[in-house]
Design a protein that fits this description.
This protein is mainly beta. The protein contains 4 helices and 30 strands. The protein has an 8-stranded antiparallel β-sheet with strand order 7-8-10-11-22-18-17-14. It has an 8-stranded mixed β-sheet with strand order 23-25-28-27-26-29-30-24. The longest helix is centred in the first third of the chain and has 14 residues, at about 55-65.
Amino acid sequence: MVTPVAARQDCWQDRGMSNARSIAALGALCLVAACTASSSTSTPRPGGVDASAGAAGGLADGGGGANDASAGSGGAAGADATFDAWTSDAGAAGTGGQEAGEDAPADSACQPVQAATVPDPWTVRVPGAGFGGIVTASSGGHSDVFLQSPAPNQDYIRIGARLDWGGSVVFFGLSANAGSNTIDANDTGRELQIALYDPTRAMQGCAWNASCQSNPTSCPNSISFLGWDPVQGGDRCGHGSPAEYVQAGESLRVTAHPLQWNPDWDRQDCNQTSCGASGVPVALNYVMDFRFVSSNVVEIAVEIQSQEAISHPSTGQEFPTLYVANGTQGSDLPLLLDAAGNSVGLNTPANDGFLYDNFASPGPWVTWQHAAKDYGVALAMDQGIVQWQGWRGDGQSAPYFHNVRPIVAFGLQAGKPVRGISYLALGSLTTVQSLIADVLKKRAPFGGLDSPPSGGAASVGSGQDVAVAGWVLDTTPQGKVQVEVDGVATLELAVNGTRPDVCEVYPAYAGCPSVGFSGSLPTVGWDSCPHLVRVRATDADGNTTVIGESVVTVQ
């Protein structure tokens, strides 16, 4: 994988390396503003078969046009209760009690009121298209697991993860045509996957005491001497990260246990030991849920789960990075387009002949396509990210490859999760444009109610206001939320409060960190019966979500 060097050209000097992961990981040390990094253990294999995916693209387009996302919510009970989708309808909660302003009845006449338990915000998703099945296969000595597209085009498209490469995505294409694969499955550093970095523990020799920013290492500026760098695919010695899978409702859930890229990452000196029989595990899990939200679009929900005792400051991360087919094992997709269909030229020289550029897309997605724009893969970001970075090798001054990733920076707090969602779409430019627009249009707001307690109860003195506070996220910034009392819209609150705690868990979402709301709800005229206070968010597309509700009584 590869990274930008515009701010620190000197970082690229005298490395003597030609593989893509070398460029990316070292680039992580060079980043200033648009800091992202990547990983690859070897150069792409030259040559290969032209998979004739142009014809396959026509088939994919037909499938996409005929099968839009349909009903069904995203998941039932699964292996990890904190990660499973909820199927309850929070909006159908009871609304007992009196209308605000009615004459107060005797306490014995009060109707029972109960606040519904609102689903975990993480489970509020785009409606699913159904479950098509899970199959496993062996390929070249690897263990792969595939999620099949659902009816009516049962198993028309598959997405596949390699379990001995940490569940990184190695296949996305037509089930009956291996040559339609849009993913570069060259080695453990490519594919679609996650890798993390820490600027204070960036290199061996200074990572051990987190001094890399104040006291840089004397170790060679080489991929072999990277510091804290848990890579989903595996390590520099060729050990693949282990992973396992389960079905979770409509989703294929893969849990990866990443390895440190450099087994000697925390040595105080620059000595390196021989590669052992196994890699160095990291106390992290990468949990990835794959789910079809239309016949041609797969949602990828990622939760990073930390069991570490140390925290990691914010820096550019691979969340995710996407290497697309270069003709070696599937179709060749050399054309990078933004959301308006404009070609993106990647012409800024970098290390070892690689070329890159940072760019903005008019929408939160980009696509790699055939030169004819008739087949390819698109990557869209649920967070609304429009800043991107692309990389390529031209096959002459550098090995031939194509890569893109969102520009996103965040840290990882000890024992805390980080969450994010992306989407892969298959088809021509016009097909993926239509499919992604449809998926994002259906994306509802999600959030949490902190006060009064969601799903609970509170009381205030006569004449006192009710403090209302919480947060809300969506693909686009949310301007306000609505507060209802016993089903009657009573108050609007602006969404403009700073909530860094929320954006640590959900980094890079539109509006971060100003995604909080707070205000006072008057109780003048309330009777002594319990009243249901509900907070609702509605986005510009008309999608409505109950953020939370609580029973409040005036004493």
